[in-house]
Amino acid sequence: MKKETFRRFDAADYLETGEDIAAYLVAASEEGDPQLVAAAIGDIVRARNVSKIARDTGLTREGIYKALSPEGNPSFATIWKVARALDLELGFHSKAPLAKAAASKRSARATRSPAKTRKSRKTPGRRI
């Protein structure tokens, strides 16, 4: 009987298209673990040309590998530089419940009766 051998799984081997990369980053970010997102970006860097990313960011290859490893702790500036070198956009979106709460507060203020609103007082001032 022939003994089966397995090679170690590496996500970088499967990140071939922009859609693959986007889906991978979304899945990593949904976990809510910043280190997992950094490691996912590291996988993407390894799937691309690490030397080119290093030149584009001004970082060393070793520095990129270390910062974006599962044990790494990259600064936001490092994440930003690497994302830009990978032609990725970083964005922030409001969570739906927070947006709804803010909208309901605004509408409650807009429907307040005039008697309950604060009247502005004019204070006598000096004319110059």
Distance between the termini: 101 Å
What is the H/E string? HHHHHH
Number of strands: 0
CATH topology value of the domain at 11-96:
434 Repressor (Amino-terminal Domain)
Mind telling me the C-alpha Rg?
25 Å
Please count the helical segments: 6
Estimated structural class? mainly alpha
Strand portion: under 5%
How much helix is in the residues? 40-55%
- Which spans of ≥5 residues are poorly predicted at pLDDT below 50? none
Q: Output the CATH class name of the domain at 11-96.
A: Mainly Alpha
- Which sheet architecture does the biggest sheet show? none
Approximate shape: elongated
Average the pLDDT over all residues and give the rounded result: 83
CATH architecture of the domain at 11-96: Orthogonal Bundle
What does this structure look like?
The structure is a single chain. With 128 residues, the chain is mostly helical. It has a domain at 11-96: 434 Repressor (Amino-terminal Domain) (Orthogonal Bundle), CATH 1.10.260. 52% of the residues lie in helices and 0% in strands. It is built from 6 helices and no strands.
